[in-house]
Each structure stands twice: as structure tokens, then as C-alpha cells.
Write a structure and sequence with these properties.
single chain; 218 residues; alpha+beta; seven-stranded mixed beta sheet; 26% strand; globular; binds acetyl coenzyme *A
Length: 218
């Protein structure tokens, strides 16, 4: 877990806070002076956790930094802390998500432009706390806040641990192959529980071919 020289209790009035480009937790209340103080502290927290995440994933540079977050409007970082826990006040993880316009292959290999596709961009729980259910806790918090469902999320270069995590908790297993770095799962293109048009037209095409074969050979 990550310790900071400053008091983090005033930042984490709740165990998980949502942070966007203003670098303030969603729970923030206060004047401009206090906002500057809290955003500066949050900036240090995000930078440090982003670096730890990069090290854990063996990346050459962090995916998450306060500077990057400040510059984009449609990304959100969820940060989790343990206040008054067995290790004192510590920050234990982060999850960065955003919406992106992507060109993706669907189930039958046709290209689709998906506007504002939900994306999991960076996810990290401190090594000392992994596999204790905290990843699930922050992920579920994020899903509720964003109003997303797991099968509709794309994942940016998932690690083996994240692939196992998504399979275990959300049953995500069958990947729709892409040529870019994003991973998405069977069901991504389905609309509200019904098979999407592409899949229907795929089966219609097969049925049509079978029909022609049968009628021509008769
Ligand atoms: N080996 C295999 N599976 C793992 C491992 C591991 N070392 N760690 C977590 N998992 C998966 C398993 O399914 C595990 O269930 P199990 O213990 O029954 O096998 C499950 O996750 C545990 O669930 P949680 O405890 O809720 O998850 P955790 O708190 O460990 O957080 C996370 C998951 C974020 C992937 C964490 O392991 C981590 O930070 N890993 C290092 C960084 C990383 O790989 N991040 C994802 C990068 S890709 C991206 O961000 C888009």
C-alpha cells in the first residue's frame, strides 16, 4: 500500500472516490483555497499509484498520471484507500476508465465504428492487498457509477491477472478478435439481451445458403 507524507483522511471521506479532470474527489466540498490543496494532494496520489501500476504491468511509462487526467474530459479515475486500517491510512488502488470512439470487428469480422465505447484503461491494486476482493469492490463501484455492464466494456491491453479477474467475476471469456490493442467479449454487440443485427444477418446468410443448396440439388 502507498503511504503519503500528508494526511489523506480529508481526501477519503469515503473508501473509494471518483476523480476527473479537476483532480477533486466527487465528495469534495469547500472553497477555492481548499480545492487547490486537495487537488495538489490528489495529483501526487494519482501520479504515485500510476507509477506503481506501470511497474506492476512492466510498462515503460504510466498509463495514468494527473497531467493526463487534467487534459482529458471523458476519463475518470477511481481511487481506493484504507483509512484507520491495520496499516494506518493508506492508498491501495486505482482504476481508470474512459469512453473512446473505436473501430472494432464484430462477431462475423465486419468493421463497426463504436462511439463512446466504455473502456477499462488502467487497473491496479497494491501487491500487499491483491486477491482479497478489493479489485472486485472498486470495479463494482465503477460499474454502478458509470452505469456500465461488464460485457459492454472494452479493455485496453489486459494483463493475465485482469483476464482471470474478468472471467471469474463477470463470466467474460470468449474474446472477439481485434487487430488493435483492445479486448472485447462475446455479447459486446448484442442489444439488450437480443442478438444484434449483424449476428442475425450472419445466420440468415447461412440459412439462405443451405436453402439454395437444398433447392438446387432437389
Ligand atoms: N494470478 C492469477 N489471477 C489473479 C491474480 C494472480 N496473481 N491476481 C488476481 N487475479 C484474479 C483471479 O481471478 C483472482 O481470483 P482467485 O484469487 O480466486 O484466483 C481474482 O483476480 C481476485 O479478485 P480480487 O481480489 O477482487 O482482485 P485484485 O484485488 O487482486 O485486483 C487486479 C485485480 C487489479 C488485476 C490486481 O491483481 C492487480 O493490480 N494486478 C497487477 C496489475 C495488473 O495486472 N492490472 C491490470 C492491467 S491491464 C489494464 O489495466 C487494462
Amino acid at each position: 500500500m502507498a503511504n503519503f507524507k500528508f494526511d489523506i483522511q480529508s481526501i477519503f471521506t469515503e473508501p473509494i472516490v471518483r476523480v476527473s479532470s479537476n483532480l477533486l474527489p466527487h465528495t469534495f466540498r469547500g472553497d477555492r483555497r481548499r480545492a487547490l490543496d486537495i487537488s495538489s494532494k490528489m495529483s501526487q496520489i494519482i501520479d504515485h499509484m500510476g507509477e506503481l501500476s506501470a511497474v506492476a504491468q512492466k510498462l515503460s511509462k504510466p498509463v495514468t498520471s494527473s497531467q493526463k487526467l487534467r487534459m482529458v474530459e471523458n476519463q475518470t479515475v477511481y481511487v481506493m484507500a484504507d483509512i484507520n486500517g491495520c496499516d494506518g491510512d493508506v492508498v491501495i488502488g486505482l482504476l481508470k476508465v474512459g469512453a473512446k470512439n473505436l473501430y472494432l470487428f464484430d462477431n462475423v469480422g465486419d468493421t463497426r465504428k463504436v462511439d463512446q465505447a466504455p473502456c477499462i484503461l488502467d487497473f491496479y491494486i497494491h501487491e500487499t492487498r491483491q486477491r482479497t476482493g478489493l479489485g472486485k469492490r472498486i470495479f463494482d463501484f465503477m460499474l454502478a457509477e458509470e452505469n456500465w455492464i461488464p460485457v459492454k466494456c472494452t479493455v485496453d491491453r489486459p494483463s493475465e491477472k485482469l483476464l482471470k479477474f474478468l472471467k471469474k467475476y463477470y463470466g467474460l471469456e470468449t474474446i472477439i478478435p481485434q487487430t488493435n490493442k483492445f479486448v472485447l467479449y462475446e455479447g459486446f454487440f448484442e442489444k439488450d439481451g437480443t442478438k444484434d443485427n449483424t449476428q442475425c444477418s450472419f445466420y440468415l446468410k447461412i440459412w439462405h445458403c443451405v436453402y439454395l443448396e437444398v433447392t438446387q440439388s432437389a
